Amino acid sequence: MRISSRSLAAFAAAAFSSLPILPGIARAEDTVSHSDLASVQRSVDDLSHQTSESISNLRREVSSNYDSLHNEISSLSHQMETLNSEHRSMSQDMVDPRSAMNSEVSHFAASIKEDILKSVNAQNARRNAAAPDQATINKMVKKALTDNPALLRAALASLKQGGNDETGSTPRTPPASK
């Protein structure tokens, strides 16, 4: 808002010239002329108009500044949301060293466990192949005795005489085949 110094000086001169300086002391001009009043009125009107224009200009400028600031704040808010989103995304993608180490240890432990189970299963399979179950043993004995009559006679003779390996008696030699 720029008020010209001439307008302000004219307004001040007109306003103060119409006031009595000291009450009771007569002035050189006791009456104010119409032209003086009209001049003061024009000065007041000019100042009023300039003030109104200045206020309107200030309001427009403030409104413009407010809109500009509001847009800037909105833009910054959007940028903050974007940065927060990127931060969350990066945090999720980042691997925690302890978690990675725990994962590797768990994987290694699972691998060792699997190797141990394979080894135990292989040993059990070999042992089972080397030591057949009772049904298999019975089948093998029956087949051997059936296929070899001399062995069958020796086993029967041993049973008749009461000697067997379980009682701790000495084994008997089978008789010679005829």
From TrEMBL:
<protein>
    <submittedName>
        <fullName>Secreted protein</fullName>
    </submittedName>
</protein>
<feature type="region of interest" description="Disordered">
    <location>
        <begin position="156"/>
        <end position="178"/>
    </location>
</feature>
<feature type="signal peptide">
    <location>
        <begin position="1"/>
        <end position="28"/>
    </location>
</feature>
<keyword id="KW-0732">Signal</keyword>
